[in-house]
Design goal:
Ribosomal Protein S5, domain 2; 9 helices; 11 strands; binds (3R)-3-hydroxy-3-methyl-5-(phosphonooxy)pentanoic acid; Alpha-Beta Plaits; 41% helix; alpha+beta; seven-stranded mixed beta sheet; four-stranded antiparallel beta sheet
Length: 315
Protein backbone atom coordinates (compact mmCIF):
# COMPACT_ATOMS: atom_id res chain seq x y z
CA UNK A 1 0.00 0.00 0.00
CA UNK A 2 1.33 3.45 -0.93
CA UNK A 3 0.19 6.51 1.02
CA UNK A 4 0.95 10.12 0.14
CA UNK A 5 -0.55 13.31 1.54
CA UNK A 6 -0.86 17.00 0.67
CA UNK A 7 -1.53 20.05 2.84
CA UNK A 8 -4.27 22.67 2.73
CA UNK A 9 -3.45 26.34 2.26
CA UNK A 10 -4.52 29.83 3.26
CA UNK A 11 -4.16 32.97 1.18
CA UNK A 12 -2.84 35.70 3.50
CA UNK A 13 -3.06 38.62 1.07
CA UNK A 14 -3.94 39.29 -2.55
CA UNK A 15 -6.72 36.90 -3.64
CA UNK A 16 -8.72 37.93 -6.73
CA UNK A 17 -6.18 40.64 -7.69
CA UNK A 18 -3.78 37.71 -8.26
CA UNK A 19 -5.96 36.57 -11.16
CA UNK A 20 -5.10 39.94 -12.79
CA UNK A 21 -1.33 39.69 -12.42
CA UNK A 22 -0.85 41.26 -8.98
CA UNK A 23 1.19 39.41 -6.34
CA UNK A 24 -0.38 37.30 -3.58
CA UNK A 25 1.00 35.61 -0.47
CA UNK A 26 -0.16 32.16 0.59
CA UNK A 27 1.00 29.69 3.23
CA UNK A 28 0.59 25.94 3.64
CA UNK A 29 -1.60 24.60 6.45
CA UNK A 30 0.43 21.55 7.35
CA UNK A 31 -2.06 20.16 9.87
CA UNK A 32 -4.99 20.00 7.43
CA UNK A 33 -4.28 17.22 4.94
CA UNK A 34 -5.68 15.19 2.07
CA UNK A 35 -4.48 11.59 1.69
CA UNK A 36 -4.34 9.16 -1.23
CA UNK A 37 -3.81 5.40 -0.70
CA UNK A 38 -2.96 3.16 -3.63
CA UNK A 39 -2.82 -0.61 -3.90
CA UNK A 40 -2.92 -3.19 -6.64
CA UNK A 41 -6.41 -4.30 -7.66
CA UNK A 42 -7.36 -7.88 -8.54
CA UNK A 43 -9.99 -6.73 -11.07
CA UNK A 44 -8.95 -4.98 -14.29
CA UNK A 45 -8.84 -1.16 -14.49
CA UNK A 46 -8.47 1.68 -12.02
CA UNK A 47 -11.08 2.49 -9.41
CA UNK A 48 -11.09 5.62 -7.24
CA UNK A 49 -13.02 5.76 -3.95
CA UNK A 50 -13.61 9.30 -2.68
CA UNK A 51 -14.44 8.44 0.92
CA UNK A 52 -15.65 11.81 2.17
CA UNK A 53 -18.19 12.32 -0.58
CA UNK A 54 -19.13 8.63 -0.91
CA UNK A 55 -18.24 8.48 -4.60
CA UNK A 56 -16.70 5.63 -6.58
CA UNK A 57 -15.28 6.23 -10.03
CA UNK A 58 -14.19 3.61 -12.57
CA UNK A 59 -11.58 5.40 -14.61
CA UNK A 60 -12.49 3.83 -17.96
CA UNK A 61 -16.06 5.19 -17.94
CA UNK A 62 -15.62 8.38 -15.88
CA UNK A 63 -16.97 11.54 -17.54
CA UNK A 64 -14.43 13.96 -19.02
CA UNK A 65 -15.32 16.61 -16.42
CA UNK A 66 -14.54 14.43 -13.39
CA UNK A 67 -11.58 16.09 -11.66
CA UNK A 68 -10.39 12.96 -9.83
CA UNK A 69 -10.42 10.87 -13.01
CA UNK A 70 -8.69 13.71 -14.87
CA UNK A 71 -5.79 13.98 -12.42
CA UNK A 72 -5.32 10.20 -12.36
CA UNK A 73 -5.29 10.05 -16.19
CA UNK A 74 -2.93 13.02 -16.58
CA UNK A 75 -0.52 11.63 -14.00
CA UNK A 76 -0.49 8.12 -15.49
CA UNK A 77 0.18 9.63 -18.93
CA UNK A 78 3.00 11.73 -17.51
CA UNK A 79 4.51 8.69 -15.78
CA UNK A 80 3.92 6.46 -18.82
CA UNK A 81 2.52 3.89 -16.38
CA UNK A 82 -0.31 1.35 -16.54
CA UNK A 83 -1.61 -0.98 -13.83
CA UNK A 84 -4.80 -2.23 -12.23
CA UNK A 85 -5.17 -0.05 -9.17
CA UNK A 86 -7.42 0.90 -6.32
CA UNK A 87 -7.04 4.52 -5.19
CA UNK A 88 -8.71 5.74 -2.00
CA UNK A 89 -8.81 9.44 -1.22
CA UNK A 90 -9.84 11.12 2.01
CA UNK A 91 -9.37 14.60 3.34
CA UNK A 92 -9.59 16.63 6.56
CA UNK A 93 -9.97 19.80 4.48
CA UNK A 94 -13.49 21.28 4.24
CA UNK A 95 -14.73 21.58 0.63
CA UNK A 96 -15.24 24.92 -1.14
CA UNK A 97 -13.97 26.83 1.88
CA UNK A 98 -10.81 28.59 0.75
CA UNK A 99 -8.47 25.90 2.11
CA UNK A 100 -7.57 24.51 -1.32
CA UNK A 101 -9.26 21.14 -0.79
CA UNK A 102 -9.52 20.32 -4.51
CA UNK A 103 -5.85 21.06 -5.19
CA UNK A 104 -4.79 19.13 -2.08
CA UNK A 105 -6.72 16.00 -3.08
CA UNK A 106 -5.29 16.16 -6.60
CA UNK A 107 -1.76 16.71 -5.27
CA UNK A 108 -2.07 13.70 -2.96
CA UNK A 109 -3.16 11.54 -5.94
CA UNK A 110 -0.24 12.73 -8.11
CA UNK A 111 2.26 12.09 -5.32
CA UNK A 112 0.83 8.67 -4.51
CA UNK A 113 0.85 7.53 -8.16
CA UNK A 114 4.43 8.76 -8.61
CA UNK A 115 5.51 6.97 -5.41
CA UNK A 116 3.65 3.78 -6.40
CA UNK A 117 5.56 3.63 -9.68
CA UNK A 118 8.83 4.63 -7.97
CA UNK A 119 9.18 7.91 -9.89
CA UNK A 120 10.09 11.32 -8.49
CA UNK A 121 8.13 14.34 -9.73
CA UNK A 122 9.42 17.81 -8.80
CA UNK A 123 6.92 20.28 -7.26
CA UNK A 124 6.75 22.34 -10.48
CA UNK A 125 5.53 19.30 -12.42
CA UNK A 126 3.06 18.28 -9.73
CA UNK A 127 1.76 21.84 -9.66
CA UNK A 128 1.30 21.91 -13.46
CA UNK A 129 -0.66 18.64 -13.43
CA UNK A 130 -2.89 19.84 -10.58
CA UNK A 131 -3.49 23.15 -12.35
CA UNK A 132 -5.44 21.24 -15.00
CA UNK A 133 -7.97 20.08 -12.37
CA UNK A 134 -8.07 23.56 -10.83
CA UNK A 135 -9.30 24.81 -14.18
CA UNK A 136 -12.22 22.45 -13.85
CA UNK A 137 -13.11 23.74 -10.38
CA UNK A 138 -12.32 27.42 -10.91
CA UNK A 139 -12.67 28.42 -14.56
CA UNK A 140 -9.70 30.81 -14.77
CA UNK A 141 -7.57 30.05 -11.71
CA UNK A 142 -4.40 32.02 -11.09
CA UNK A 143 -2.54 28.84 -10.09
CA UNK A 144 -1.78 29.97 -6.55
CA UNK A 145 -3.52 27.03 -4.83
CA UNK A 146 -1.74 24.26 -6.76
CA UNK A 147 1.57 26.11 -6.36
CA UNK A 148 1.56 26.61 -2.59
CA UNK A 149 0.25 23.08 -2.03
CA UNK A 150 2.70 21.36 -4.40
CA UNK A 151 5.67 23.29 -2.94
CA UNK A 152 4.32 23.21 0.65
CA UNK A 153 6.06 26.49 1.40
CA UNK A 154 5.09 30.10 2.04
CA UNK A 155 4.87 31.40 -1.52
CA UNK A 156 4.68 34.80 -3.17
CA UNK A 157 2.90 34.16 -6.44
CA UNK A 158 2.56 36.34 -9.52
CA UNK A 159 0.58 35.00 -12.45
CA UNK A 160 2.11 35.59 -15.85
CA UNK A 161 0.99 34.51 -19.22
CA UNK A 162 1.79 32.18 -20.88
CA UNK A 163 1.23 29.49 -18.31
CA UNK A 164 4.44 28.16 -16.80
CA UNK A 165 5.98 31.61 -16.66
CA UNK A 166 4.58 32.57 -13.25
CA UNK A 167 6.77 34.03 -10.52
CA UNK A 168 6.99 31.59 -7.61
CA UNK A 169 9.17 32.83 -4.75
CA UNK A 170 9.28 31.47 -1.22
CA UNK A 171 8.88 34.46 1.13
CA UNK A 172 10.47 34.94 4.49
CA UNK A 173 8.55 35.12 7.76
CA UNK A 174 10.98 36.57 10.29
CA UNK A 175 8.74 36.06 13.33
CA UNK A 176 5.98 33.43 13.56
CA UNK A 177 2.49 34.74 14.23
CA UNK A 178 -0.88 33.34 15.14
CA UNK A 179 -3.92 33.21 12.89
CA UNK A 180 -7.44 32.41 14.01
CA UNK A 181 -9.44 30.98 11.13
CA UNK A 182 -13.22 31.22 11.42
CA UNK A 183 -15.31 29.19 9.03
CA UNK A 184 -18.56 30.85 7.94
CA UNK A 185 -20.07 27.40 7.36
CA UNK A 186 -20.96 28.53 3.84
CA UNK A 187 -19.50 26.66 0.89
CA UNK A 188 -18.91 29.21 -1.83
CA UNK A 189 -17.50 27.95 -5.14
CA UNK A 190 -14.57 30.11 -6.24
CA UNK A 191 -15.69 29.82 -9.85
CA UNK A 192 -18.72 32.02 -9.08
CA UNK A 193 -16.93 34.89 -7.32
CA UNK A 194 -14.08 34.83 -9.84
CA UNK A 195 -16.67 34.99 -12.66
CA UNK A 196 -18.52 37.87 -10.98
CA UNK A 197 -15.32 39.87 -10.55
CA UNK A 198 -14.48 39.19 -14.21
CA UNK A 199 -17.84 40.59 -15.37
CA UNK A 200 -17.55 43.64 -13.10
CA UNK A 201 -14.01 44.28 -14.38
CA UNK A 202 -15.22 44.02 -17.98
CA UNK A 203 -17.86 46.68 -17.24
CA UNK A 204 -15.47 49.10 -15.56
CA UNK A 205 -11.86 48.06 -16.11
CA UNK A 206 -10.33 51.35 -14.95
CA UNK A 207 -12.03 51.18 -11.54
CA UNK A 208 -11.17 47.53 -10.99
CA UNK A 209 -7.56 47.89 -12.12
CA UNK A 210 -7.20 50.61 -9.46
CA UNK A 211 -8.54 48.31 -6.76
CA UNK A 212 -6.20 45.53 -7.92
CA UNK A 213 -3.28 47.99 -7.77
CA UNK A 214 -4.24 48.95 -4.23
CA UNK A 215 -4.36 45.27 -3.23
CA UNK A 216 -0.98 44.69 -4.92
CA UNK A 217 0.52 47.55 -2.89
CA UNK A 218 -0.84 46.02 0.35
CA UNK A 219 0.79 42.71 -0.59
CA UNK A 220 4.18 44.40 -1.07
CA UNK A 221 3.79 46.15 2.25
CA UNK A 222 2.80 42.90 4.01
CA UNK A 223 5.71 40.99 2.50
CA UNK A 224 8.16 43.63 3.76
CA UNK A 225 6.56 43.57 7.24
CA UNK A 226 6.81 39.76 7.35
CA UNK A 227 10.45 39.85 6.24
CA UNK A 228 11.37 42.38 8.94
CA UNK A 229 9.35 40.82 11.76
CA UNK A 230 7.08 43.89 11.90
CA UNK A 231 4.12 41.67 12.66
CA UNK A 232 2.14 44.40 14.42
CA UNK A 233 1.45 45.84 10.95
CA UNK A 234 -0.15 42.66 9.64
CA UNK A 235 -3.57 43.01 11.26
CA UNK A 236 -4.14 46.51 9.90
CA UNK A 237 -2.98 45.41 6.44
CA UNK A 238 -5.40 42.48 6.52
CA UNK A 239 -8.32 44.73 7.36
CA UNK A 240 -7.36 47.09 4.54
CA UNK A 241 -7.19 44.14 2.14
CA UNK A 242 -10.66 43.10 3.35
CA UNK A 243 -12.07 46.58 2.61
CA UNK A 244 -10.68 46.34 -0.93
CA UNK A 245 -12.25 42.87 -1.33
CA UNK A 246 -15.57 44.37 -0.20
CA UNK A 247 -15.37 46.89 -3.04
CA UNK A 248 -14.80 43.98 -5.45
CA UNK A 249 -18.13 42.52 -4.29
CA UNK A 250 -16.83 39.24 -2.88
CA UNK A 251 -17.54 39.79 0.81
CA UNK A 252 -20.86 38.94 2.48
CA UNK A 253 -22.96 39.77 5.53
CA UNK A 254 -21.77 36.57 7.25
CA UNK A 255 -18.11 37.40 6.62
CA UNK A 256 -18.54 40.94 7.94
CA UNK A 257 -20.46 39.78 11.02
CA UNK A 258 -17.56 37.49 11.92
CA UNK A 259 -15.03 40.18 11.11
CA UNK A 260 -16.74 42.70 13.43
CA UNK A 261 -16.98 40.14 16.24
CA UNK A 262 -13.30 39.19 15.93
CA UNK A 263 -12.13 42.80 15.85
CA UNK A 264 -14.31 43.71 18.84
CA UNK A 265 -12.86 40.77 20.79
CA UNK A 266 -9.34 42.09 20.23
CA UNK A 267 -8.03 40.67 16.94
CA UNK A 268 -5.43 42.95 15.34
CA UNK A 269 -7.19 42.71 11.99
CA UNK A 270 -8.82 40.28 9.63
CA UNK A 271 -10.09 39.50 6.18
CA UNK A 272 -11.84 36.90 4.11
CA UNK A 273 -9.45 34.38 2.59
CA UNK A 274 -9.91 32.75 -0.80
CA UNK A 275 -12.81 33.26 -3.16
CA UNK A 276 -15.11 34.96 -0.61
CA UNK A 277 -18.92 35.13 -0.04
CA UNK A 278 -18.39 32.20 2.34
CA UNK A 279 -15.42 30.10 3.30
CA UNK A 280 -13.04 31.53 5.86
CA UNK A 281 -12.29 34.73 7.68
CA UNK A 282 -8.71 34.93 8.99
CA UNK A 283 -7.64 37.06 11.95
CA UNK A 284 -4.26 38.24 13.13
CA UNK A 285 -4.33 37.50 16.86
CA UNK A 286 -2.02 37.67 19.86
CA UNK A 287 -1.81 34.36 21.72
CA UNK A 288 -3.15 35.83 24.98
CA UNK A 289 -6.41 36.88 23.26
CA UNK A 290 -7.03 33.65 21.40
CA UNK A 291 -9.60 32.12 23.74
CA UNK A 292 -11.64 35.35 23.93
CA UNK A 293 -11.61 35.76 20.18
CA UNK A 294 -12.53 32.13 19.58
CA UNK A 295 -15.53 32.40 21.89
CA UNK A 296 -16.67 35.67 20.30
CA UNK A 297 -16.46 34.17 16.80
CA UNK A 298 -18.44 31.09 17.78
CA UNK A 299 -21.06 33.29 19.50
CA UNK A 300 -21.28 35.37 16.30
CA UNK A 301 -22.13 32.25 14.29
CA UNK A 302 -18.81 30.79 13.11
CA UNK A 303 -19.28 27.13 12.19
CA UNK A 304 -15.80 26.40 13.57
CA UNK A 305 -12.67 28.24 14.59
CA UNK A 306 -9.14 26.91 14.33
CA UNK A 307 -5.91 28.50 15.44
CA UNK A 308 -2.61 28.05 13.65
CA UNK A 309 0.95 29.32 13.93
CA UNK A 310 2.28 30.72 10.67
CA UNK A 311 6.00 30.65 10.01
CA UNK A 312 6.85 28.38 12.94
CA UNK A 313 9.59 25.88 12.27
CA UNK A 314 8.09 22.47 11.60
CA UNK A 315 9.78 19.55 13.32
O1 LIG B 1 -11.09 29.95 -2.97
P1 LIG B 1 -9.67 29.58 -2.99
O2 LIG B 1 -9.02 29.53 -1.68
O3 LIG B 1 -9.35 28.42 -3.84
O4 LIG B 1 -8.84 30.82 -3.60
C1 LIG B 1 -9.14 31.41 -4.78
C2 LIG B 1 -8.23 32.56 -4.96
C3 LIG B 1 -8.68 33.49 -6.06
O5 LIG B 1 -7.68 34.50 -6.14
C4 LIG B 1 -10.01 34.12 -5.72
C5 LIG B 1 -8.81 32.77 -7.39
C6 LIG B 1 -7.48 32.31 -7.96
O6 LIG B 1 -7.53 31.45 -8.85
O7 LIG B 1 -6.42 32.81 -7.58
Amino acid sequence: MTLETACGKIILFGEHAVVYGRPALAVPLAQLRARAFIQARAAPGIIIHARDVGRTIELHDAPADDALALIARLTLDRLGAHADLEIVVESDIPLASGFGSGAAISTAIVRALAAYFGKALPPAEISALVYETERMYHGTPSGIDNTVIAYEQAIRFVRRKPLGDEEITPFHIARPFTLAIAHTGIASPTKITVGDVRRAWENDPARFEKIFDAIGALVEHAQAALAHGENEELGELMTRNQRALETLGVSSREIETLLDAGLRAGAGGGKLSGGGRGGNVIFYVELENVENIKRALLDAGAASVSVTQVGAVRL
